User: Fold these one by one.
Assistant:
Number 1:
Amino acid sequence: MKIRIGLVGFGSWGKRHYENWNRISEAEIVGVYDPAYRGTIFKDSLTSLLKAADAIDIVVPADSLADTAIAALEASKHVLIEKPMSIDAAGARELQKVSNSHKEQVAMVGFIERFNPVFVKLQSIIGDLQGPGKIFCQRSGSPTLVARQTGVLKDLAIHDLDLLRWYLGEPDFAAVRFREGFYLSQVEVRFGDVEAIVISDCLGPKIRRWVLTYPTDNIFAFFESDRWRLYMNNAEVAVDWHMPLERELRYFLECIEKGEQPAPSVYDGLRMLEIIESALIQSS
């Protein structure tokens, strides 16, 4: 039996979710709710969408993510929530509280880079590297609605910070060392004998890269021509590339089918917001 999916939000990223769901035979989109749209596939309210679906995929502006997810969980629906999950840690804590009281429902946060084949491969490499290490991350792009609502840290830097925590555990220290207005941030993070600098900006053009420097190993990952590439000690590492969104959606379905709680979880989303907000306090 197919899992009935309801999609909330039909902006540019919501449309990508819709296209990818239509490629997954185990799922059936039973409706979309977005007040800006009318048509055959669109429901006239969130309530009517909740009645029709088993699981809700939430791709709405950041200031509506947590409230929509809470409504879906309280309707006993599984939820996939786009990052940053909430505009602040307070909203994320409320969402976690509701999620904890609905443990039979899968609640997953859309940290898509965890499903990027290059970063999955890097996870299998980084645990064997001998420190001390230095990691440089850069993520640049054009201004987005999320950035306007939450700032560049919770829009772009959050991806790299989540990957670092996924690889290395909880940070010992995090602080924003340099900010210029709205569009640029530099975060310094320390994990034991590994130091990281995360640069993010909404100044464009699109740039994505990671540089890892260890005593005996150097690793370079970067985005080029619609895909990531990975090099270690000047040789390209073979990666079976695929776009990560479809894999992310399939994993969400797998968790529903197996009755397993996912990673990234609501707690992972909360920790990211807590780390970012704590870093801002450290820097003030």
Number 2:
Amino acid sequence: MYKYALKRVLIAIPTLVAISVVIFAILALAPGDPLGEFATNGALTAEIRAQIRASLGLDQPIHIRYFKWAIAFLRGDMGYSFTSRSPVVNLILQRLPTTLWIVGSAYILSVFIALPLGIISALKRRTIVDRTATAIALMGISLPPFFTGILFILIFSVNLRWFPFIYDSTLVVNDWGSFVAQLRQSTLPVLVLAAFQATALMRFTRAAVLEQLNQNYVRTAHAKGLKPWLVVNRHILRNALIPVVTLVALDIPAVFTGALVTEQVFRVPGIGSLLIDAIQRSDTPVVMAIAFIYAILIVLFNLIADLLYGILDPRVQYE
């Protein structure tokens, strides 16, 4: 397993280099000027704008800028924001706790909901339980998060007044009352994200379990007189969860990079909203850092999923 993991890491390195080159080239060639907000400022002369451009390194060739960025990134320096002139690392770290709290809670909730419902729906196929779960899942997949978010705001915030619809980023949790306030303002975005993620994961889990139910080894286990719950736990789930692990692992990077639409709907100051603001302002260092971190996380969790295959299914060999 160690040799296999090392081999995958060696493959991942040139993959990440290629991804970084593509992302950097796209952002460098994309329309938009990070100094566009200075264009309407009559107090800035052309010479001053040129000096600002030179201080940001925008006057250098694209390959020189890329190598400087890559070397700095390896040292842990992601550069400075063009708009705020703050270190990109600090901007990301400021938004990361909020993103982990909202998106992480939603993802954990969706997994705890989707896996049991998917398994039960498959085992009780063609029953009222299966049909109800399938109808709810199809409804959840069909409704985009921005529509569900607005619907929840109209029902639970405007009409019932149960929860606030704007996330208060200035709230400091230091007592029980502030903790309850934090839970109340987090409820709607967490539910919207959990509903959308759980429905897709539930349908995937159901399909994976159904695929295993008619296999010969399941019939053999039943013929030996094993109890149904033992057949499910020891045989069906270990094989059915292999593709589910891949889906779960590849979705985890989104926990760190935020939910773009939901954070915009509820004004959650997470990394997703930071990315949207950076794109609108052509703040290339921020966009580049977040996009490349997302690529690193996808490659990393893909490797973790591959290694988990050997734990879930002993038939998987790494030689």
Number 3:
Amino acid sequence: MNPLRRGGSARLQSAKGAASAPAPLDTQPFVPGPGDYAEFLRAALPKQQKNVASHRLGSERVWLKKAGPRHGKWGYRVMAAVARMARLDIIKPVPNPGGEAAIATEARRLRQLAAAGLRVPAVLAQQPDGLLISDLGQSGRNTVVLQEKLDQAASAGPAALLAVWREGLAAIARVHVHGQHLSQAFDRNLVQCPDGVIGYIDFEDDPSEVMTLAECQARDWLSYLHSTAMMLEAAAPEAAGVHWHAALAEVGDEVRARIAEAARRMKWAQRLPASRRWGRDTQRVRAVARLLGRWHGAGAASSGSRKP
């Protein structure tokens, strides 16, 4: 078994489950007009069982999201516990109101990021309890979730893994250069479009409702690290640290300070048990703490941690 893989084929298979399978609606050629999207949303929403599902409108793939119950955002109870114990607000789960409020939040954030010139799904139609958005694929060509690319690259070795991981770092930096932030900047929410540009998905919550912009942006970096730390630690922690500091050298002092603070306050988490019996969440938090401790320890990459 390749130690760099995380979940292997089982995870990739689950990522391509029923919720992501387009449901054919019409076998005839169809070019939707401006009002057709709204009409489709009105007609399809009551029939859709899942909270999120994709559909085909002729040759076009669209996604329908319906208002669902409130749920925890990071989905990692261990990380929430670490946030409480370390008094580290920037890694706390952000309240997700669920229901119609979550639909309104996602539509607003998608429009906000699109207006900033970032690649996100287009809002095609909206009503209080549902949202219809475009797929980031183009002309029948599908997107690739960065999570999947990382898993595949890991099997090719550390150099390939780091090359893909840097794409994620660059994608997050691009958001911040535009004065924006993401919601859950995990590798599963970064998708490479057919033209090579990385787009962004999943905006049911807005961290800026409870955090400053610098805190939101620091949270983006830590979220991405959280989703990738285990494979980085197994593959090339030192080389990854060089890329990490190169990316952070371009951010503001306050964002860097927040990340350094997280590194200090999470030191104790390096001693969490490594055994799988404690669950993947514990392993992820331990890996994050160990990498941050290595990268932000005394004298670590000091030459690359600040702008010249």
